[in-house]
Amino acid sequence: MAKRAERPGDPAKLIGLLWRPTETVSRSGLTPKVITRAAITLADTEGLDALTIRRVAGDLGVSTMALYPYIAGRPELVELMLDAVAAQVYAHTTPPARAGRWRVRIEHIAQANWNHHMAHPWTVDITAGRPIPGPGVSGKYEAELSALDGLGLSDIEMDQTLTAILGLVSNAARETISLRRIRQESSLTDAQWWESVGPIMGAAMAGASYPVAARVSASLGEATGLATDPEGAFRFGLGMLIDGLGALIDARGGHTL
């Protein structure tokens, strides 16, 4: 189970680290950005369980105490990491507002965030809280809201629409990443795993009848080879969300560009 990151430690310190980071470079080459990049690399490869100040310091070849003047502590470091990777979501792709018609823009937002979570799996292991937005998170929020602006939605509806989209993505990404970890650890596909437990389950459930569940589960397995398909559910749910939003926009006579 991945370690849950604390959110955040000291808000006052974190605001300063996010918005007014020191540019002074120590003799060892340390800056908040250097430390944050090392921490991201560690989390990307080994997960949040491996993320400690001691480990990051070791990877940078300095003492643990050398890092504290720059990042305050682990909770603040995690927030710096989140902000840094948020700034990169659209760095190498089209900004959402220029991705095409509004439906394409929403699909673009969803896919960019899906790619983001797949590239940085630890991002789905962090619990919600009262995060302090930094320039990376704020810029991402602005870019995504701009793609929804002018559709006839109120400001609150724009925020709620974006939250719904990102929620679909993050929930499905969390389940997908978790299943990938389980499959990797067990070295079994879902079909192979079910072959081993199916007979035991059948004996235990003797006399019980769940005809609809059995039919649907069998259909899913035959079509996908999976016991559960969170990515497929995400894409199906996104389509329904877009269709529902389209009906709302059409009913209000809003823009369809």
State the total count of DSSP E strands. Answer: 0
Q: In one word, what is the shape? A: flat
Task: Profile the largest sheet.
Answer: none
End-to-end CA span: 44 Å
Proportion in helices: 55-70%
Describe the model.
With 257 residues, this protein is mainly alpha-helical. The chain is built from 11 helices and no strands. Helix 6 (102-119) packs parallel to helix 8 (155-186). It is flat and about 70 Å long. It starts with 10 loop residues before the first helix and ends in a 6-residue tail after the last helix. The model is unreliable at 1-5 (pLDDT under 50).
Primary descriptors:
single chain; 257 residues; mainly alpha; 0% strand; flat; disordered N terminus
Short description:
The protein is 64% helix and 0% strand.
Question: Topology, please?
Answer:
Elements: H1 11-19, H2 32-46, H3 53-60, H4 68-71, H5 74-86, H6 102-119, H7 135-148, H8 155-186, H9 190-204, H10 211-224, H11 230-251
Helix pairs in contact: 1-5, 2-3, 2-5, 5-7, 6-8, 8-11
